[in-house]
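User: Can you predict the 3D structure for this chain?
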Amino acid sequence: MKNKFLFTVALTLGAFSIAHAETPYLDLLEGGSLDQWNVGKDGTGWSLEDGVVHRWKDKAGYMMTKKKYKDFEFVFDWKIAEVGNSGVIYRAIKGKGFEYQILDDVKHVRGKDPLGLTAGLYALVPPIADKPYQAAGEWNTGRIIARGTHIEHWLNGVKVLEADMSSEDFKERLKKSKFKEVIAFGTMAAPISLQDHGDDVWFRNLKIREL
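Assistant: Here is the predicted structure, written as structure tokens:
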């Protein structure tokens, strides 16, 4: 009887472990295609060649995943043109949501504002001052973790900011921001959006897993 009990417990724990194993990453460029994306305003303006997505056309519009995500981990490589500006937008409502800022910190005017710097939570939370940033034209690796009220931004393997939406600090930041009138800001499932801000930007190795 004891052995039978132990065998049953082992099976139960094994099933629990399998059920709670980490969800594997989904390759958002699987097969070398953009099938998992809505591509810009008219399907042009963004290209995919040799695994690299390039926003190249003026007024291309955003490139957005067809699926909506709320709690997720998104990893991506990116590089920005000189004096360029772009970003990864998530949990957006009518285009207004959280943004992982991508910027030429050195030459772009927004580089003078801590809330506009690369890897920051745009207009809300700045990244750490000594982040490991590769200059415009060089590849960087970004990572976004969004789980409930918890938000993290990573750059080149280093966590550069952490925010708790339920904290008084975050609530005060939101009240002072351009998003203060957005109802339920940052709480809704939404597409992952690669921003068209008028400048050339490149992405590769776009992978996501739901949490």
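Residues 25-210 form a domain with the Jelly Rolls fold (CATH 2.60.120.560). The longest strand covers residues 201-210.
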